[in-house]
Design goal:
Elements (H helix, E strand, L loop, with lengths): L2 H6 L2 E3 L13 H33 L11 H5 L17 E5 L3 H8 L5 E5 L8 H15 L23 E5 L6 E7 L2 E4 H19 L5 E4 L5 H17 L8 E6 L2 H4 L2 H8 L3 E6 L1 H11 L19 H16 L4 E6 L8 H21 L3 E4 L2 H14 L17 H4 L10 H18 L6 E3 L2 E3 L1 H16 L12 H18 L6 H8 L12 H5 L14
Parallel strand pairs: 2-3, 2-11, 3-4, 7-8, 8-9, 9-10, 10-11
Antiparallel strand pairs: 1-5, 5-6, 12-13
Helix pairs in contact: 2-6, 2-7, 5-6, 7-9, 10-16, 12-13, 15-16, 15-17, 15-18, 17-18
Amino acid sequence: MSDTASLVSAVEILGAVEESYKTILTPEAIAFLVLLHRTFNPTRKALLARRRARQAALDGGILPTFLPETKFVRDDPTWQGAPPAPGLVDRRVEITGPTDRKMVINALNSDVWTYMADFEDATAPTWENLVSGQVNLYDAIRNQVDFTPPGGKAYKLRTDRVLPTLIVRPRGWHLDEKHFVVDGEPISGSIFDFGLYFFHNAHELVKRGFGPYFYLPKMESHLEARLWNDIFKLSQDMIAMPRGTIRGTVLIETILAAFEMEEIIYELREHSSGLNCGRWDYIFSFIKKFRQNPAFVLPDRSAVTMTSPFMEAYVKLLIKTCHKRGVHAMGGMAAQIPIKTDAAANKAAMENVYKDKLREVTAGHDGTWVAHPALAAIASEVFNKHMPTPNQLFKRTEDVFVTEADLLNSNVPGVVTEDGIRKNLDIGLGYMEAWVRGVGCVPINYLMEDAATAEVSRSQLWQWVRHQVTTAEGIKVNKDYALRILEEETAKLEKAAPKGNKFRQAAQHFSTQITGEDYADFLTTLLYDDITKINSKSAKL
């Protein structure tokens, strides 16, 4: 038996293998995944155990600090991250979205500089979504992604300009891929998404003048960045690609990672392409990590903005850190979508987008995110006016000093209201209902919601019940109250939705997460089994 055949024999594929998937699920690619899994999954599992231990310490009142053991990294002024890679010098506007074929074409046709194709929070990880998404990216890189659905309009890549640079976001370390089993255990979703994309496309991307570029989500420590860097190095070695060809931009979207920004860049060094302010996940993490501590109770979600003390401190530290180390400091998401039925409301929403992007560019960010192509023009206008250079890496903020107390400052003005409670329930239910139908990016109230905003919603509800807050209307928020309002909102949504909707199924899950008792690590892990279709026998390739 050849080495490849031996490695493939260790795998069970428990999802359907359509004919088009065979381009991706080749024996050589499967063998590549097996080697990555066997080499790195023990470290991944140890790091996840470390997360649980850290959470126990936080629950016990031990707050995070800048690490004394890595002070030498922070104090050494000589080291730098990698120079910007081809296609990543100017990243002033990036669009994000899932990897279905229509979305890939629309994103690449947008007037933006890069496109982040998302296997994470904007994708419900059904087997079909993940493997067909790999097929779509494979075809897009080779300019063969055009298609016409039956009875529909033709979707084609534009040819009048250079297409945006492609960046891929794999799933976070906490997620398994249960349809792909190696040696009897599910492969990491991170390794599955990264490995298939890298194996099939790395050399093709370089040939076309770019490289295999990634966004790295949900990390909680520099040791998790070290694991990514080890995977990058070995993966490049395995396909005879020079080390440093890969680039990874890390989303700083957990409060713990904010205390280790320099260390994260240091671990990735030759593969680093900067850090990004993952604002909604960061708020989620702030609530989640300190959920047992009454000093960290936040008001209505609408009151928690980028100018809230802990958010402002995190942005300042991220920009200072990135530019000190010569890498991009990317801004956050504008989730608004056009309001076609109300011109006045649309004008107000777009003005808010303008103000948000103006705050980012004047603060020193090198680029920003949009969720809808219509917002690209607004973001471009702001950045073109205030950043005539390709980036602002030269803009140092050495006079900015952010302390541990600044990062933990939860003094956010505002109150908890019944309207805020109902909005959280609507967002959580709306997103979860779509997710269990296999949709991971959902327009709700003219905002493009993904898993992060649903996480904020359920975490706030849990926190408010846990600490028995009193609303502005004078109502004590307890378990019975939360479940009653949940039932009312579910009934309203169910009535307004088409038959066959899954709001009741979503409410059953949501009801376990808002009583101040059980708390799932992530909604995506809570709901994952609802969208998996595990076959009893391994598919034949």
